[in-house]
Amino acid sequence: MKHSLTFLAALLLVPPTALSAETSKADADTNTVRVFVFAGQSNMVGSDSKAKDIQRFPPFAGLETPQDKVLFSYNIGREDKRTSKGWVALQPVEGIVGPELSFARRVAQETKAPIAIIKCAAGGTTLGGDWNPDDPSGFKLYPLTLQLIQSSLAALDEKKVPYRIEGFMWHQGENDMFNKEFKPNYGKNLKKFLAAWRRDLKTPDLKFYIGELCTKTIWGMDNRENMYAIRAGQKAVTESDPGAEYIPTSHVGVEIGGGEGLHYHYGTLGQLEHGVSYAEAYLRTIGKKPAVDRALNVWPYAKGSPVKLFILAGHRNMEGERAFTQEVKALAGHEALANDNGTIAFKYSLGGGYKISNGWEPLGPAGFYDTFGPELSFAGMLQGKAPGNIAIAKFTHSGSQMNDWTPQGTSAKDRNLYPQFIAFITESIRELEAKGHPVELAGIFYHAGENDMSFGSYRGSAAKWLQSTIAESRKDLARPALKWFVSQQPPTDHKDLNKIDVTANFAALAAADAAFIHLKAFTLPPQEEKLVITTAGIVELGEVLVRGYLEHR
Fold this sequence. Notes:
Layout: H1 6-13, H2 16-21, E1 33-40, H3 42-45, E2 67-76, E3 82-83, E4 88-90, H4 100-108, E5 115-121, H5 141-158, E6 163-171, H6 186-200, E7 208-211, H7 219-222, H8 224-240, E8 244-247, H9 267-285, E9 307-314, H10 316-319, H11 325-328, E10 341-350, E11 355-356, E12 361-363, H12 375-382, E13 389-396, H13 418-434, E14 439-447, H14 456-476, E15 484-488, H15 502-512, E16 516-520, H16 535-552
Helix pairs in contact: 4-9, 6-8, 12-16, 14-15
C-alpha cells in the first residue's frame, strides 16, 4: 500500500518531548496516541462501498486518499482476509470505504493528539458464535481481534510510543437475529462481550459505542421484529452501562441495490456518515461539542400578528439524504437558499430526534452532514406568493416506514413515531401562541415513504396506513378539516411491484377526502439512485409542495 510508513516513521523517530512541543498550547496531551478499535460485521467492513464514489459527496471529498498522520492496523474479511501486516497510513482498503475514514478526520479536526485505528471486521458473523469471548466458533473473531490489538500495541511498545485505548466502536447484530438462541440473548451476550474486552485489554473504564442496526434497508421491513429484538438488547446494555453509548445510525445514507431497489448495506455515503456519528459521540465524551450557532437573534414577527404554520414531515427525501449545501450554492437561481433566512422561524426534529433545533432558528440548511430538505425552496417560493408571516416546523425520520407513523404503531415499539409527531406539532403551536401570535395550521406536507414503495406488502398497505394517520391526527389536533398535502415521487418500477397501483390508491383517498391533496412529483430532475432524490430534485420538490398549496389553500 502507498504511504504506508510516512507518519509511522515520523512518530517512531521523533522524541515524545518534540512531539508535544509545538502543540502543547492547543491540547494538554498531544504526546499520547489515541487508539480506537473498530469491530463488527459487514456494515463495519464497508461492504458495497466504493472509494471512487467518495468524490460524489462534497462533505467527504478527499477521504479517498491516505491520511498520512493516522495509523491503521487491520484484519478484514472471513475466508479471504485483507491484512495490513503492521501499521500503515489510514486509507480505503482495496477500494472499500469504512467508517474509520471519516471518523479519524472528524476527530482530528478537534484534537491535536495522534490517532490510531485498529480494525477487525467480517461479514455474516455472530456475537453468539464468532465473537463469543468464552467459546468462539466459526471464524473465531474474538481471539483474532484480541491478537490483532495486542500485536499492534506491542509494535508501539517496542518503539516506546505512548498510547491509550480510547474507545471501541461496535456495529453488529444482523446475523444474530436469525438464530433462535442468539436473538433473545443478544443483550446478555453483549454485556459479557464488553466485560471481556475490559478484562483482556486491562482497561476497566474502556468506553464502547454501539451502532444501531440500519433500519432503512429491506431488513427494516421484513425483519422488523427481529431487528427490534437486537436493538432492545443493545439498548438494555447501553442504558445500564455508563461506559457504553447507543449510536443511532438509521438516519444515514444507504446504498440502493438492484431489483426492487433496496439493500442491506450502508454503501459509500452511509459509511462516511456512519463514521461521523461515532466521531461526534466520542467528541461529546471528551467535552468537545460542536459550536454551532443558529440562534434566531431577532424574532421576525410583529407582536400579536398572526402566523401561518407549515408542518413538513416524512422520510429520507423530506430529510434530504442526498441534497448537499455545497451543491445548492452552485445551483443556478437557487444560490441564496444556502443562506439563513431570519424572516422565517424554523423548528425541527430530524432522524427521529437525532438532531433537534435549539428552539426556533432562522430557516436555513440545518440537516446533518451538510444536507438540507425541501423546506428551503418551499419557503423561498412561498414567501413571494403568500402574504403574511410564515413559520415552518419539520419532523422526519428517514429510517422509518409508513406504518411507524400510524397511531396503532407496530411491534417495534421504539419506532412508533405518531405520539412524538403529534406532540411536536402541538408544542410548535403552543410556542408561537405563547409569543402572542394567533396560529393558523396551514397544513401538513408529507412526502410518502420511499422504501415502502419497494416492498410489496408495504406498498399495498401504504394508503391504508396513511389514511389512519391522517384521520387520527385531525382528532388529536382538534382540526377535523386539517389539510394534508401528500407528495409522491414515481414509485419503484418493478414487474412484481407494478401489480400494486399505489398511485391509484392515493388518488382514491384524495377523491374521497377534499382535505387530502395528492401531489404527483413525477417530473423531478433525474437522480442517481432509485429512491433517493438529489440536490436539484429536493429543490424542485419544495416548489411542487408550494404549487399544491397555492392551488388548494
